[in-house]
Amino acid sequence: MIDIGSFKPAIVYTIYIASTPEKVWQALTTAEFSRQYFSGLAIELEQKVGGAFVVRLPDGRVHISGEVIECDPPRRLTITWNVNWPDLVEKLGPTLVTYDIERAGDAVRLMLTQAHDRTIDDDILSGGRAGWPAILSSLKSLLETGNALAIKMEPPQRMLAALKRLGIGTP
Amino acid sequence: MRKPEFVYVTYIETTPEKLWHALTDGDFTERYWFGVRLKSDWKVGSRFSMMRDGAENDAGEVIEVDPPRRLSYTFVNLSEKYRGERPARATFVLEPYGSLVKLTLTHEGFDEGSKMLPAISKGWPAILSSLKSILETGRPLEVPYAAMKMEDASQ
What we know:
The complex is a heterodimer.
Chain A lengths: L7 E10 L3 H9 L1 H7 L4 E4 L6 E5 L5 E11 L3 E5 L1 E2 L4 H5 L2 E10 L2 E10 L5 H24 L11 H9 L6
Antiparallel strand pairs in A: 1-8, 2-3, 3-4, 4-5, 4-6, 5-7, 7-8
Chain B lengths: L4 E8 L3 H9 L1 H7 L3 E4 L7 E6 L2 E12 L3 E8 L10 E10 L2 E9 L7 H22 L7 H4 L1 H4 L2
Antiparallel strand pairs in B: 1-7, 2-3, 3-4, 4-5, 5-6, 6-7
């Protein structure tokens, strides 16, 4: 088990959604929802501390894998979020992702925190800074309107170039 | 160390023209901006005000107006708590993105130790989430100020 006390937030993104904490939790933790708002990717979560967290590509291959660190449905979920690229975890350490879900008036506040146990270069963080707003904007639309957003993201070139410089295998 | 600023990006199913209207029309802002009416003639150099229940709560100056692409203004809260703080600059960039609009807000130019920065960092996500909701569903969000925790943030 990793020591989450040694992790510092690098990216924080907050969004308010006209929904319930239970539905937001479901959207964050099931493939049924994630396929719609998260570029066709399928989230699988074993809802217990130490359980497995997996994000699969549409063809079934594992793209991101991790472990459940904190699990308090529908309020707080912390997982390690490691993209399956060769040497990424060895060189950058694990990525920690926390979702905090709280009622705020008739809406729900969802706060995403991406944390690391070391200083991560801005070039590498640019991937998450671009990705999270798109993913979570689409999740909000899905829960409020029934339709996710058709966001076609360009590959995060700045991040990919920085990873390549570090000798991390990227697609 | 990163400079003292706040950046927020969201994607909205709308047109740049509708989004521009939503960002500049006082009647419209009052509906989703939790009762805040923006007041300005939107000419560069003109006064920019945030009105609530007829009172001017925040004020600054219009810096840039390029519809429907870029809007920039400065403001600072006029209450005692923020006295002496220089008005920081909020810039909205609207970019067509397929059938969507990508909205990027950059709020910068805060004094070191600014009390405005932590407060606006709590406020903008709620305001821009409500803006996205009203444009996509016709209904704004109802989030009480207390629930945004703006006051906790700026203590």
